[in-house]
């Protein structure tokens, strides 16, 4: 039986410890904690931070600065983190995002800006985010949307714009024309109409559309602009006008959820639907 010399044993032990250390690393930065397993993750939560700390490593892939007091995002703030795939700013005090603030985040897949005070989506806000898949703008104060602000988001499949101050659905028209868009949530906004005559696109790939809003007064389709729609959620006020000129326009619809909608306004349809009225 071969005997291992103490020096060799110590070397093997150090190698094993080094491998274990590389597989999972956790330590605390000045205002954040960092873990390294499959990805380099930095969490800077509930720290009363007004900006991203300077000691956050540039190779981090997931950065979460939620529940702080950050009021704006400038170009130098996040563009230095070129390896990011997930970025979360939820529950801050964000009022402004500088144009091209994310231009160097070409690997970013998920961007969460929910629960802030953003009111204006400017023309070049999302430039560079060609790989972004999920965008969350839930519970802001968005009322102004530049015409082509969403155009750079060619990989986007899911967007949440619930609980904002959008008054005209046409302002979001670019979203519907994105090549990979599947899911759009626009609940609790201020628009009153969904009318194909007012929407400047011929067809959308969206499959799930949620428009729960007590201000909604009409859903009118005179053109087949949603040929792939399989799930539609609507909420309306007391008076609601439903007009779909042909059953063929919604022939892929398998789920229709109607909240506070007068079902007598719906014409019988041959399409198999699951109807829910609350």
From TrEMBL:
Keyword Transferase belongs to the record: no
SUPFAM superfamilies per UniProt: L domain-like
Pfam families named among the record's database cross-references: LRR_8 (PF13855)
InterPro entries (UniProt xref): Leu-rich_rpt, Leu-rich_rpt_typical-subtyp, LRR_dom_sf, LRR_TM_domain-containing
Keywords: Leucine-rich repeat, Repeat, Signal
PROSITE patterns: LRR
Residues spanning the signal sequence: 1-20
Top-level lineage group: Eukaryota
This protein's GO CC annotations: plasma membrane
PANTHER family for this protein: ANTIGEN BSP, PUTATIVE-RELATED (PTHR24369), CHAOPTIN-RELATED (PTHR24369:SF210)
Protein name: Uncharacterized protein
């Amino acid at each position: 039986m071969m005997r291992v010399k103490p020096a060799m044993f110590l070397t093997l032990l150090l190698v094993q410890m080094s491998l274990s250390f590389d597989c999972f690393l956790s330590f605390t930065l000045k205002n954040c904690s960092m873990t390294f397993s499959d990805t380099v993750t930095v969490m800077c939560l509930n720290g009363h931070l007004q900006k991203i700390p300077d000691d956050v490593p540039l190779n981090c892939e997931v950065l979460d600065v939620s529940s702080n007091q950050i009021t704006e995002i400038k170009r130098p703030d996040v563009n230095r983190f070129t390896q990011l795939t997930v970025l979360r700013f939820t529950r801050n005090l964000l009022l402004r995002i500088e144009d091209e603030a994310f231009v160097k985040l070409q690997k970013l897949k998920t961007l969460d800006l929910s629960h802030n005070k953003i009111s204006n989506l400017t023309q070049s806000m999302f430039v560079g985010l060609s790989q972004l898949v999920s965008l969350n703008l839930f519970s802001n104060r968005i009322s102004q949307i530049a015409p082509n602000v969403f155009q750079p988001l060619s990989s986007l499949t899911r967007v949440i714009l619930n609980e904002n101050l959008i008054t005209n659905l046409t302002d979001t028209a670019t979203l519907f024309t994105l090549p990979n868009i599947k899911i759009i949530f626009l609940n609790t906004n201020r628009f009153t109409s969904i009318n194909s005559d007012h929407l400047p696109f011929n067809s959308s790939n969206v499959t799930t559309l949620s428009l729960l809003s007590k201000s909604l007064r009409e859903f009118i389709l005179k053109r087949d602009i949603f040929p792939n729609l399989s799930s539609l959620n609507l909420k309306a006020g007391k008076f609601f006008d439903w007009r779909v000129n042909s059953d063929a326009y919604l022939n892929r619809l398998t789920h229709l959820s109607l909240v506070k909608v007068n079902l007598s306004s719906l014409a019988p349809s041959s399409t198999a639907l699951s109807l829910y009225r609350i």
